[in-house]
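Notes from the 1:1 (GR / supervisor)

We went over the backlog. Supervisor wanted to see one worked example end to end before approving the batch request, so GR pasted a single chain during the call. The sequence is below; no edits were made to it. Supervisor asked that the structure be written out right there so they could see what the output format looks like.
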Amino acid sequence: MKVLVVADGSLSSACEQEGTAWHMHLTLEKLGIEHKFFYHSAYVDRSLFTKGMNTLWAKVTKKPYAVFKDCNARANQELFKVAREFKPDLVIVFKAQFLLSDAVRELKRIIAPAKIVNFTFDNVFIYPGQLIAAKEYDIFYLADSYVLEKMHRAGCDNARFMSEPVCEQAHHEITDITDAERAEYTNDITMVGSLYPYRVLMLEALRGMNLKVWGNIWGFANPDEYRSTFTWEAFQHRETEGREKQLIFALSKINLTTLQPVECVHAGNERIQQTAACKGFQLCEYNPDLEKVYRIGEELVTFRSRDELREKAEYYLKHPELRQEVIEKAYACVMSKHTYTHRFQTMLADLGLSL
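Structure output shown during the call:
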């Protein structure tokens, strides 16, 4: 079998081993499957010159949606060239927000009778072009049951639910932790993730507790609004990845996950599975789709309010033996049912394919 993986981003960003496409690469490599990458958005023309010419052209022609130059044209032609030369049996697309309907149809024609699927773990309604193109795929996988229901209402019968997996090669138990690493990363409560305004409000519940926050500031937020909050005192002012991220998950007594309302309507996020795979204990904001993955209260501890977050944080800090019970059950859950290998096998079964 030959698999072509199409994704946003670039080779350099994927090599950071934090992206979904890179995690699929590690999985296919482990399975011994021949595969090739294509980073569609890396070829999209987003230059100021092209944007300016398209704006001017729309004014000159008095047609608001007229374009002087198709920003996606080169990206699509490069993709078609790769598909013709590689001749894949399966194309897996990860989001690819600039891959629009016409391009998906042409790609399907080129690779026929091969199959093409899309894995979109973000809320597809944020990306209108991708939303319209969804019906062109053989299967369009979504990680949120609310979004899935809406897609079915809109006539996208090819949409299916698939919760976010973990890549066991990128996120796993670390057995060689040094004394220096324990001293640096051991902490009562830690959150890894961007500082969305919603999270800042939720974290106020932990005021006075030993909290560290690793991530960046949401692009549309004003840092001045954050400086008077408790979260700002805990903010480490940088992102984390790789071994450091795994150490934080493993050495924090409590890993906190709050769920961004725009992207996680009913779903969880990838850090929940990543934390479990690194044998970290976590308190996670409740969303209904978490029950599709975990036994709530046994494999994952959740909260539904700021008061409950504070109460459970104080309780579990006092009970390391209970934290360890949950850690072991969560680890067994994700490693037995929720890795990229499991998701790839499910995808093959859904398509009627075999290795």
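Supervisor's comment: The two ends are 6 Å apart (CA to CA).
Batch request approved.
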